[in-house]
Amino acid sequence: MEAVGLSGITKRFGTFCANRDVSLSIRAGSIHAIVGENGAGKSTLTKIIYGMHAPSSGSMTIKGQPAAFSSPRDAIEAGIGMVHQHFMLIGGLTVTENIMLGQERQRAFGLLDTRTSTERIAAIARNHGMEISPDTPVRELSVGEEQRVEIIKLLFRNADILILDEPTAVLTPEETGQLFRTLRSLQEEGKTIILITHKLDEVLRIADTVSVMRKGEIVDTLPVPGLDKQSLARMMVGRQVLLRVNNPPAQPQKVVLDISALSLRDHRGRLKLDNLSLQVREGEIYGIAGVEGNGQSELLELLWGMRSRHRKPEGRITVDGRDVSGMTARDIAGLGVSHIPEDRLRHAVIADYPVPENLIFGRHREQRFRRGAGFNRAELDAYTREMTEKFDIRYDPDPALPISRLSGGNQQKIVLARELNRPGLRLLVLAQPTRGVDIGAIELIHNTIIAARQEGIAVLLISAELDEIMTLSTRIGCLYGGRIRHEFSDDDVIRGRRNQREFEQEIGMHIT
């Protein structure tokens, strides 16, 4: 039986064609992956299925019946649910209250019947191995727990077709394993799962069928058994992809970043950084491996000049010998420090602004981009074309198009282009630089990071992806409980790459 049928679906945004004549059949009860480069049209296609976009042309059937949704509410009523890449939860409400939103049950006198809902939520969670406390405020949950809430919300609304957009982008390996066990449980119950992902290893691990998209079109739809990562990558990108970049030996020079005995407590007195010490030198990449929530975010805020939620730190942070404690973000940037933050939408771009302006934030005062009280549009447009070509940024070249209309991967490439091209760059601080980015863009980003290191730039890399840490790093520090529990030397890392599985397990021992 067919759960979703698409025939000749085309979607245009102005002159830009996001989906072109897409026809696809998704079998009921299957896990169907949709893969492709950033901007290939995956998210647009699933948003059409979910009623967030209406197709410009073409038709759709749901469970064999013609369907034309005018809003997500229509899709929900048809049994379709979607977990977005950026979760849509309210931190101040409990798990139960978030799940009930829009589906409130009332008792006498207009009071909410939270008891019945809580019991049902607990039963759904128990049946599918999703441990959760219904009375806990969402702001106290981990990212993996927030995702469970989103999935339970769909099941609470009786969805039997579930769309998951990049569901493992912010999960630890353990949380990913738990998610996959949940998806198998849902499949055994007869649910249909549509999975958008960039992680080809996970497609091979969990999906029954995969559809490959390129430039808005379906290239092919194939059963997963018998496929390999290299062939999938080639179909996605249209060329041979290096699954592991060439990383020549580093030649570190003098210390650029020196963190000494750094401790930090939050406004409640909880210890977030505990006597943390490390050094990053010119011409090396220092990788910090660790499960998120062990001090990475707090360290980044200090390096970026953001400390509003915390007490004054103890210890020292210096860049080229200058103490940056108390400096503003602008002053720190003036020392030649660039940042790729872990949350680009919150800290790296202004979603309603177009690409050219986002490419020069922090540099907008430079004389080359100024003309009178405004911008030198000719210079800005020329710079935008240069960065677009160099970093393979794909978008409709409408000068008024907001960056929010671009795929997450193309947004990330814009941030990377901006930060790597700052004049006088000395230290590059990278947090999750390839999160939500396709395999072709990962290759480009990794090569760009290594090239920066080869030019003598000091790089601090924080990533939840152990493969990324092992591929790029000169040295690796294992972060747990706000301190470096163990540090692997450059010789350790070189030896570890020869037996990557064992090395990954050894790193794992120090971060959990």
TrEMBL record:
Alphabetic keyword roster: ATP-binding, Nucleotide-binding
Residue ranges occupied by any ABC transporter domain in the UniProt entry: 4-240, 257-506
SMART domains per record: AAA (SM00382)
GO MF entries: ATP binding
Pfam families: ABC_tran (PF00005)
InterPro entries reported in the protein's UniProt record: AAA+_ATPase, ABC_carbohydrate_import_ATPase, ABC_transporter-like_ATP-bd, ABC_transporter-like_CS, P-loop_NTPase
Top-level taxon in the UniProt lineage: Bacteria
PANTHER family hit by this protein: CARBOHYDRATE TRANSPORT ATP-BINDING PROTEIN MG119-RELATED, GUANOSINE IMPORT ATP-BINDING PROTEIN NUPO
Name of the molecule in the record: ABC transporter ATP-binding protein
